Amino acid sequence: MSGGAATGTKPATVKARADLALNDEFLRKAVKYTTEKLRSGKKTAMEQHGNWEEWRERGRQIRLHTIAHLDYYLNLFANNARANGVHVHFAESDADAVRISLEIARRVEAKSVVKSKSMVTEELHLNHALDSIGVEAIETDLGEYIIQLAGETPSHIIIPAIHKNRYQVADLLSEQAGEKLAPDTKILAGFVRKKLREKFLEADIGMTGCNFAIAETGSMVLFENEGNARMVTTVPRTQITLMGMERIIPSWADLEVMATLLPRSATGQKLTVYMSGITGPRREADGDGPEEMHIVIVDNGRSLQLGDPEFQELLNCIRCGACLNVCPVYRHIGGHAYGGTYSGPIGAVLTPALKKNVAEWDDIANASSLCGACSEACPVKIPLHDMLVYLRRRKVEAGRGNAVETAGMKGFAAVMGKAGRYKAALKLGRIGQKLVVRDGGIKAKLGPLKGWNTYRIAPSIAKETFRERWTTLDQEIRAGLAEMAPDMKARMEQKLKERGTKGKEGGHGHGG
Amino acid sequence: MGDNFGNGSDTHADRGMSGEGGVASAQASASHREWLAEMDAQSHAAQESFMNGIAAKLRRARVTEAPKHPYRGAPDFWHAFEWTLEERIERFTANFEAVGGHVVRVPDLAAARVFIAEKAAEMSAKYVIRQNEPELDRLGLEDALPPGSQVTVWNAEADMDGKARAAEADFGVVMADYAAAYTGSITVLSSADKGRSVSLLPTALMAILPVDRLKTRLGEIMADFDRAGQGNLPAGIHFISGPSRSADIENDLTIGVHGPGIVYVLVVG
Amino acid sequence: MKVSMFVTCLSDAVFPRVGEAMVRLLARYGVKLDFPPSQTCCGQPAYNSGYWEEARTSGKTLLQAFEDSDFVISPSGSCTHMIHNYPKLFENDPVWLPRAKALQEKSYEFAQFFVQVLGVTDVGAVFPHKVTYHPSCHGSRLLGVKDEPIALMEQVKGLELVPLPFAEDCCGFGGTFAVKMADISGAMVTEKVDHIKETEAEVLVGLDMACLMNIGGNLRHRGEKVRVMHLAELLEEGVKLA
Hints:
The complex is a heterotrimer.
Chain A: H1 14-22, H2 25-49, H3 52-68, H4 70-83, E1 87-91, H5 94-107, E2 112-115, H6 119-123, H7 126-132, E3 136-139, H8 142-150, H9 166-177, H10 185-202, E4 205-208, E5 212-214, E6 219-224, H11 228-232, E7 238-244, E8 248-249, H12 252-266, E9 274-278, E10 292-298, H13 322-326, H14 328-333, H15 344-353, H16 373-377, H17 384-397, H18 403-416, H19 419-432, E11 437-438, E12 441-442, H20 449-455, E13 458-459, H21 466-479, H22 486-498
Parallel strand pairs in A: 1-10, 2-3, 2-4, 4-7, 5-8, 7-10
Antiparallel strand pairs in A: 5-6, 6-9, 11-12, 12-13
Helix pairs in contact in A: 3-12, 9-10, 15-17
Chain B: H1 12-15, H2 30-57, H3 76-79, H4 85-98, E1 102-106, H5 109-122, E2 127-130, H6 134-139, H7 141-144, E3 150-153, H8 162-168, E4 171-175, E5 178-180, E6 185-189, E7 204-210, E8 214-215, H9 218-228, E9 236-240, E10 245-246, E11 254-255, E12 262-268
Parallel strand pairs in B: 1-12, 2-3, 2-4, 4-7, 5-8, 7-12
Antiparallel strand pairs in B: 5-6, 6-9, 10-11
Chain C: E1 3-5, H1 9-13, H2 16-27, E2 33-34, H3 44-48, H4 52-65, E3 71-74, H5 77-84, H6 86-89, H7 97-106, E4 107-109, H8 110-118, E5 130-134, H9 137-142, H10 147-154, E6 160-162, H11 177-180, H12 182-199, E7 203-206, H13 209-221, E8 227-230, H14 231-241
Parallel strand pairs in C: 1-2, 1-3, 3-4, 5-6, 5-7, 7-8
Helix pairs in contact in C: 2-14, 8-10, 12-13
């Protein structure tokens, strides 16, 4: 029952996977409905809470500070966790993390593992690895459990099974139940509650991810709504927690800020139903809680972002999924089209960024119109839309740009480098377009126009461009020019004076 | 609440290596302890290399002293935010009920006892598990519940299988250690006498909240944990903000997935 | 004071009436724009696709053209925002970097200039039509021009401004994205036009011809009669009607 990544059947390019998604009516409706619900939930929660921009900036500063001093805080966390009785492990690569986890499982002679939701364990394909040594890994988050039964990967960071309808879910669960279950949410959830209860109580290992790790007390924090994370950290004898090395915050005071930003950004809740701070295994006299607790700190490409001014801020991410919920591209293609563990805007940046070798990057960074909604939604102000451009640039710099596009861009530069050439190109274009212009528009689906004109009628080059008209226009304006009002003149002069004395002028979005 | 939430004389440093636990588990063996020791030694070495690697990438020497953290915690204006007691009760109630929880105000423990007994009768609850706390001793549920009911006290007897008792319980009864009105949350801390399972496994949760423990902001509660510091916190600190829920199937909300689907907070005083 | 026109390659070649409307509107307030002809394109298409060398080649024409200008005004939020990227684009070039920073400081989008610099919200226009407004992503989100166009439209007599559902959603243009990921882009613009139809507006107004060209193209493709106008065109026409 430990489903792994469903590879092999998925097409190889982002575009091809996106095409599949675009043709799946149910998927599109489901993703649209879910993201709209979550994003309106966030909007309401933000407005109700107030001063959202101040909180965002606070969240950003706390994360920036922690990452900038990661050697101090991660070290502090590890030492404090150990002092609390936790066995701390360090895994540089995904293979290391898997090796350590399997070794623990073997040593405690585990037959089954109950897991709460963890994106890191998805990254590591850990279920698959446990399966390979004969250990049953059971997802206990309702959505994760469903897709595990289906042998699929999550399509959304927060609501993993939105691509499945209730009939599909009923079919999957009926198989487990050995009887036909009605496609009714209450009945289906009731079955899962009962079924997983048994698993919780008999499992040898409880496995979790980690939302935040508090350095000063060596505590780990989990946010959830169902109660399964509490289950897997209370009932089984051994606990294994997988933690990205960047999931650190200094103190509980800082946790208040994260607890304010995360649930509101993810689902619009004031707080998730359960927020648990776990500090070490059970105390000797305690009646429950794991006897043995392990935390595996995972790098797997995260440290590659350190010292890189264009990507270090990526480590701010608190995995809330707000960027997915506002992304118009995600809304149309869903999570699987992204082809990796993480989807949406964060996935488009994280997946390549975690891999140093540019040759391994696919074209995921191209699946964006750079609208910036993600950066605006991010509670810790990661400039995701800028990072997508940096990824594209790095691909080009590594000589891995699309050959046709590269040639086109060279042409662009040649034409745009000098106004004279640009004017000549326009004249040529005006002549050439005579072949395809009808009623002032272009409908022909030829060459580069094919994609555009499938959905639109393209405009044509003007009979007289602005610059061709300028001399005439200029004369006309001069003739009837009004006198500038003195107060207006004063305003403009004031603006001139302010320049150079002010820090930054106008707009946002450049990291400061 | 004092500043030490720990249970005193645990030797945390070597408790992990004592591989304790029941009879005949792999973890009880000497070889297991040896393996854990080996892993810990490897971990120390790896830690140094990890941290050095981080400092190298950041192109500076290792930071070994606590750096100044000028943005610690919530924005300054937030610390001044506080509701009156009545506002706190009103807002806590509104928030908790908005997500499907129930809040009842009672004057004292006696009234709380009556309420819980009535609910038990109403819901045909037979098995009740409660924490081993003096207030809950005083609550006197044992005398008030309908005949045929059974009250188990957490960890009160040796060889008791607390988890199983909690799993079969209809009601779990706990004292809330704190609550935050702004988010509609109660907080429960674990200890030898306070099992995590008691607020998690039963079908319904009854949490008794003395009104003086109800704060406005989460940060007021967090401050206690920061003050207590490493070595003085319990294994489990749980914030509970309503009944268990999920919207994973077609965005359709379902209450009571793994944790209690019915949660009552009795505000006392 | 030298106030210069940054017409943008799109307005220059395809929508010259937009540039002209802007020139005329400003002239009413005594703002005489000059037009340095060595300008070509801000370089956005190359920048966004990661071809920064080519973007610099194009961008330098702007840096040179506006060297002596005090104010540079453009009818495009995305092109103005592109200039805000110049300090990054030229960060490794000690010769061009100071000029990049200088140009950023003096560049304004049209509505931004009217409201923030001139202090004008009422241009005395009359435009008795039902209008809906699409806030282009770069202009509104990244450049921060959110209130200014609304302020200008609210003062237009007879104009009924109908809110566009999910207005903040991208129209799907994204430059080469519309060509490279044509079907996703097509889905996005289709959705945008669906929302426009819901408003039953006669006119769609915006601040960026790239978006308007994209949306207008789909409207025409679907045979819709909605008129697509740049805010400068709307105001200039409204002033003539007054």
